[in-house]
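Below is the record:
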Amino acid sequence: MDLSDIIRARRRELGLSQGELAQAAGVSVRQMARYEAGEQQPVFSAAVALAEALGISLSQLAGKTTHGIDLSGDWWTGWQTFRDGKEFIAVQPAHITQDDDHLQIAAKRRGLSDEDGGYLWRGELRLWDNELLMGWYAATDGAVRSKGTMYFILHPHGGRATGRWVGMSYDDAIVTGWAAMAREEDEPARLIEGLTQTKGSGVAP
């Protein structure tokens, strides 16, 4: 696909008008119309802003196709965590931007209240053989020190993943728990329940 086709298709997928996308990318509506008509290519700074507004990578904007499963877009993430001996399942929306086998992921809102230890975070994942996701996460809330690693087994169709996180708690202890990602909001908690019951033997159905 040409860049103009990619901009137009992604804009429609997001349900945005040309004016709304132009405003999000910081360009004029007339300029956006030129991009979509293929009359002009955006300069680098405009391309970066446009890719961000569309929720895709620069490579995807340029028409580079991934050699693996396309995992970009909105997801729901679930995390088994413990505080004062009590188990919590934090479910929160996140957005993934993919550039071939490299993924950037960022939480869009907290999964738990501040009192229960909820926080925003971002991270990176590497897709291996269309089967595994491995990477790191770190809190983006200034006062929260949480950071650690993530490991997921990807479902063959790419619609969900189950795994585990390992990180550092607020008192410097090493902590861990089950984790899951899916396209539907109610699925991560169900997947984590399956991992808990089976002790992680295989990917939860």
